[in-house]
Amino acid sequence: MGSVNFINEERPLKIYFIPYLASGHLIPQSDIARLFASRGHHVTVLTTPSNAQLFLKSNPYRHHNYRVQTFQFPSDQVGLPAGIENLAGITTVDDSYKLYYGTMLLQEPLTNFIEQDPPDCIVGDFLYPWLHDLAIKLRIPRFAFNGFSLFTICAMESLRLHRMQPTGPYLIPDLPHKITMNAVPPKFPKDFLEVLLETEAKSDGLLVNNFLELDGEEYVQYYKKITGHKAWHLGPACLVRRTSEEKAERGPEKSVLNVEDCLSWLDSRGANSVVYVSFGTVCHFPDNQLYEIACGVEASGCEFIWVVPEKKGKESESEEEKEKWLPKGFEERNKKKGIIIRGWAPQVLILGHSAVGAMLTHCGWNSTSEAVSAGVPMITWPLHSDQFYNEKLISEVRGIGVEIGVDEWGVYCYGQKEKVVGRVEIEKGVRRLMDGGDEAEQIRRRVQEFKKKAREAVQEGGSSYNNLTSLIHEIKRLRDSKLHEFE
Ligand code: UDP
């Protein structure tokens, strides 16, 4: 890489963001795009029509420097109903393959668009490794995004480096903390994750939706040491949304309940009295697991908000169907005690309310970072992917949550029969944080400290704020350098 004599600091950047079609990728990338827009740069998000609504509405930059370019999703070609363009709308394994195939078919129109009007830089989802060759061809820098915490990426990289395919509980080699994993990841199709991580490491840098203080400087150093690659902590990106309207409008769908009703219900509850239960956008537990959750939460005696994804194609549910997942009389008994949200919940607003005392979570990284940003301790129940590593960061490394004790990967996505977590464990987990006591108090205090640090990180002079400034400078340097070389 050669040196650059002149960097045009005045000329704004033109950046394309290309997120995968899943809310867990679209939401943080749309927020990171806002961060760049808030500094006067021109951002364009490339996505499909039904996902486009995620990026606009109350977005304060939408009339100025924040554009969304849409590409028709090839619904007919892949055999998905019109409008199903997000993993959150998928309820069968078959359909998840169709969605993946559809995203692959988007490569051609996206490539044509980018080639005809190239930006100064691409921020590309790691699930689109083909962006690597395109960026090289066009001689533009490419930054990668995968939606994981750096702690988790370090754990994955460590396993990759040591070519580990664990068959039982295992210690993650060389990590700054001694972490033993009980849940054994399944064997992926050979090289799938390997190729994605390799391509990611060939980018000009990795954008991380976290703040340095939560991952820890030691993980930035570790990552650099084992990959030679730089990670830029820019988050928590959810904090870029400031008004209630912006916070409420994040999903592929509108919240199913009136946001004001939800907030006024929370207003009527005491501080830290409500447990918020949500497992993200992809998990569709089978009825018997939902039943155990209902029993466990009810037995804990806590007030609750429980988000249960809607069964697609089911306009209404008979009493008989309902009793398969909800104990008889549950709603009547808990009329005053809790709310069940069937569908999309205004999660960031809920977590930000002082009545919420804990979150029972699958440890998806967005949910984790939103809980930390709101100072809400977590009861962890990971399901798959990065979630088991995130759990360790929450419970063992930072001490801001307690484990429910799940030690088996499951898909739990589309109602398959899998090992069920029983009501007793669920009740125990909820009580551990909600019933008070020294342990819960200490955890609550620590997560409040991280909340403060998260807010400081994104303010002027904070770590994420300064990282964004340096990153913008770096992208300008790459843009203005004709000497930029690609691997
Ligand atoms: N989310 C929401 N309302 C819901 C369900 C999810 O706002 O009812 C948001 C949540 O706030 C988070 C994202 O969807 O930003 C889910 O991402 P996460 O990484 O936690 O889990 P995933 O869905 O990717 O498993």
From TrEMBL:
Keyword Transferase among record annotations: yes
InterPro entries assigned: UDP_glucos_trans, UDP_glycos_trans_CS
Alphabetized CDD domains for the sequence: GT1_Gtf-like (cd03784)
EC number: 2.4.1.-
Span of the signal peptide: none
Keywords for the protein's UniProt record, in alphabetical order: Glycosyltransferase, Transferase
GO molecular function: UDP-glucosyltransferase activity
Pfam families named among the record's database cross-references: UDPGT (PF00201)
Top-level class of the enzyme under EC nomenclature: transferase
Family in the record: Belongs to the UDP-glycosyltransferase family.
Name of the protein in question: Glycosyltransferase
Organism in which the protein naturally occurs: Arachis hypogaea
